[in-house]
Amino acid sequence: MLETMKTLIRESDLCVLATSGPEGPHASLMACICSADAGTLYLVTARQSQKFRNIALDSRVSVLLDTREKDPRGIIRALTLHGQARIAPEGAEKDEMLARFARTHPHLEGLIHRGDIALVVIRIRSLQLLNGPQEAHHVVIP
User: pTM for this structure?
Assistant: First the structure.
């Protein structure tokens, strides 16, 4: 089941990021890319955004990926990831991932090259896959 979950991560380029801050929960539709092993998710955001401020206060995040664009409603798969977020410092990791973002999401080129952009790195700690409305699978990542 873990490989099925990793495949869904690799095939997804949009997600919903949930953070928590002083004003409560905050959800954001985001473009995403993942590491080769599908154990890390990468997002970009402006440093002035609510999600950036929330992650600075509480690094625990949740992310939703789903297949609603390609599957009929009765068989939609929804994958919820829980993880720890960090902001990548300036350097090779950030440069490499921003270059991948530019190739994968060319419509974000203007955002990616702004001076105030942050690369959010989410290390996945657990996964819950819903296959349709009734079948659920949960995996904790050691």
Answer: 0.93
